[in-house]
Amino acid sequence: MSKKLLIGTGVALSLLFSPLSQGFAEGPTPGERKQVENVAHRGATGYAPENTMAGFDLAVKMKADYIEIDLQRSKDGKLVVIHDTTVDRTTDGTGKVGDLTFEQLRSLDAGSWKAEQFAGEQIPTFEEILDRYHGKTGILIELKAPELYPGIEEQVAAALKERNLHKPQNEKIILQSFNFESMKKMDKLLPKVPIGVLTSNRAHTTVEALQEFSTYADWFNPSYGIVTEELVDQVHALDMQIGSWTVRSQEAADFLFDMGVDAIITDYPDYVDPRK
Ligand code: G3P
Ligand code: CA
Questions:
Q1: Would 262 be classed as within a structural domain?
Q2: For the segment 139-193, what is each residue's pLDDT rounded down to a tens digit?
Q3: 34/196 Cα distance (integer angstroms)
Q4: How many CB atoms sit inside 10 A of residue 189's CB?
Q5: Ligand 1, residues 50, 83, 90: which to mutate, most atoms within 8 A of Cβ?
């Protein structure tokens, strides 16, 4: 039985016998779009530097349902929000994230590379992100290369627990990674927080692979190049949801709407909901 089925059997039974279940079963009428979670990839990255407060603030302003963040760790153990395992591309510094102290990371300019108007943006900490955005928008937390940071799962769990963000329905928090072992561990540490697996590998879309993911994951999150309607149906049949990335054009967003995914992870929140 899938993780979600185990947790949600009671909820499902009550919905089944509720008059509301009729409405849920009908789904969108032809020409209508189903409600899709609009996830701002590393913030509103099309318009502001990725993984910075400027980009996350803009995503909230654009009414994204979630911000997506990439989590790593400094040499002295602080959880920081940055995508690459080196600081070279997105700051004015050089070196590996894990070889630099928090003070060194914090002294870097994480905004100028995008545009001069963002000069002075700093690499955020995980705790700053949780404190600033929980309750304002959902947070899709990616553990980036957790194999480089032994014990990062326990640290993430502790930070969420300290803020009471590990309980079901409390806040929109999802954890995801390309590292499946790390996600299995997170599921054990925080059984009520939704887990996502990331992949761009078609080998991970077989029935067997999807069944294995569904024992601990709630979300299957593939790159949009491997998304098909059949895959979306298979994921739903296993009672998981599917979120796909990375949208950088209106055509890509429209394709994913047509496929029937549940979340679109985008550099441009306005492509997913032009009203926002
Ligand atoms: O959320 C999906 C996406 O972030 C995965 O790829 O490389 O942008 O972290 P990447
Ligand atoms: Ca990411």
A1: yes
A2: 999 999 999 999 999 999 999 999 999 987 657 999 999 999 999 999 999 999 9
A3: 21
A4: 17
A5: 83
First CA to last CA distance, the chain: 38
Give every CB contact of residue 256 below 8 A, 6+ residues apart in sequence: 36, 224, 227, 244, 247, 264
Q: Is 266 helix (H, G, I), strand (E, B) or coil?
A: strand
81 lines ligand 1 (CB under 6 A): no
Count of domains observed in the chain:
1
Q: Is residue 208 situated within a structural domain?
A: yes
Domain span at residue 267? 2-22+35-87+123-272
Q: How do residues 48-65 score in pLDDT, each as one tens digit? A: 999 999 999 999 999 999
Residue 269 has pLDDT above 80, yes or no: yes
| Ligand 1 within 6 A of CB of 70 | yes
Are the CB atoms for 264 and 33 separated by under 8 Å?
no
Based on the residue annotation, tell me whether 83 is a catalytic residue of this protein: yes
> Buried b vs exposed e over 194-204: b needs ≥16 C-beta within 10 Å?
bbbbbbeeeeb
Residue 258 lies in a domain: yes
Mutate to test the pocket of ligand 1, among 38, 86, 144, 245 (most ligand atoms within 8 A of CB): 245
Query: In 77-204, which ranges are continuous DSSP H helix?
Result: 102-106, 126-133, 152-162, 180-189
C-beta of residue 41 within 8 angstroms of C-beta of residue 271: no
- Quick one: DSSP state of residue 237? H
Residue 178: give its domain's CATH number.
3.20.20.190
User: Of 107, 163, 118, 105, nearest to 139 (Cα)?
Assistant: 163
Tell me the pTM.
0.91
Q: Is residue 62 part of a domain?
A: yes
Q: Give yes or no for residue 68 CB within 6 A of ligand 1.
A: yes
